[in-house]
Every structure is written in C-alpha cells, then in structure tokens.
Amino acid sequence: MRYVKINIILGDHQEKPLDFLGSTLRGAFGIALKKVVCINPKYECLDCFALKNCLYYDFFEQKNKPHTYRFSKPLKEDNFNFSLYLFEEACEKLPYVLSTLVKMVTELGLGVQRQKFTIENILCNDLQVYKNGAFDFSSVIPRTFESDESASNITLHLSTPLRMKHDNKLLNTKPNLELILTSIMNRLNEIKDLPQIRLPYKPSYRETHSSIVFTDLTRYSNRQHTKMQLGGIKGHISYEELDERSYILLKLGEILGVGKQTVFGLGEIKIEKS
Fold first, then answer.
1. What pTM was computed for the model?
2. Are 56 and 86 in the same domain?
C-alpha cells in the first residue's frame, strides 16, 4: 500500500480548539476542496459534466466508495496542528490537496470563529514542502508500507475512540484481537477494491492486561442538520507472545486507522513495544 502523510504545523491561535477537532477539519477541508477544484459554473455536483475527474466528488459525494484519506488529530490538544494521510491513487492528487489545506487554514479558517492561521511548516513524509508561501514537493515520493521489525510483547493503545460493530451492535467493551486485525485487513482490501474476507489465519497471542472505557463524542452534521454521536472505546490492551503476522497488521493499522469513521481521525492506534 502506498501512502503520503502530510503534517500541518500552524502558528499562534486565539481560540481554544475543540476537544475533538476531526469533524471540523474534514468539514473545512470539503468546503475548501470544492473551491479549489470545482469548474462547474453551477457549482453543483448533480449532473455535472466533470464528475469522473473531480477530486471533490471522489472524496465527498461518490456513493459506495471507500475514503482514500483520513485526518489524524489527538483529542484535547491545545493547538490546531494536524495530519492528513493519502492512500493509493489519492497520493497522485497531492498538489490539489496541499493547495486545499493552505486555503482552508489561511483563507477560510477553522472553528466556530473561522479563525485563520499562518503556516509554520508543512511536511510530506517528513520532507519540508512549504516555505515562504511557496511549495516544493518535487522530492516527495509515496511510501510503500513495509515492516522489517517485529515484537512479541506489545501494548496496543486506542488513542482516539474506536468504533466497531460486533453482532450488528456498536462495541462498547474490549474487542478481541481477531476483530481488530480483521478490521485492518479489510480496510486495506476496501482501499484496494478487494472483497471483504475473514482473517485467513489464527493469531497467536496471550492477553495480559487491559484498561478500556467508552468515550462519547458529538459532531454536528451540516449536511443532515443534526448532532451525531461518534462514541467509541479508548484505552490500552497488552499482549505477549504475539505472532509476527499480527504485529505487521497492527503496524499497518497505525497508518490506516481501525474501525468506522477513521476519516475523522477516529480509530487511531499506537503500538508500544513492551
């Protein structure tokens, strides 16, 4: 899987960020993206002549298509800095995405007060691409996920609420590892336009400790004109004697996210070697 990770570091701000900024970021991104790429005089997607080549339609309006991007932003930070991942073919749209992000934070603004920011730095895969108001991303090459390391004793941190369904119900207790691994594998299959499948092997591991809580979040949907709940589970789970294949899948999950609504930054996981 190919990916590009964009890090946006912003200047000073007056307004306090919301505890959960992911929904705000995606909403502002959609407004800015349409302003950057839309060439339809009617400014409407319905019956537009350019749908097949429109990044806004691809990212926000096309039905039954997986999101090939996701925001990453920890909860309850005192800054507006954030990251955005692009996956597979979305990597080729990097120039449009970068232009959109600049318009979003410097012209349109974020938060209730539409606060505008100066940009201190933009990194793509750890390379600086923005300086003195100009881009240079000529050296940016999408990374290909690979893991040449392994660890049998780890702690899995659920950094932002993880939303998963089990038996057609939203999970509010500790998930088993198989459920998490299956979610990661099928997220990858979804992005690669492959069918959803069961985990093709039996993981080997021993769970030693866990601390899990259900955390509720609320976002306002401008499209549906209503508040929506985005609660999920947070905490950590420790494993020993973990097999290498499962470790690699979990490392992939650090990039892709796990479960539902990862586009908002939910389902963020981190692997800590014990």
1. 0.94
2. yes
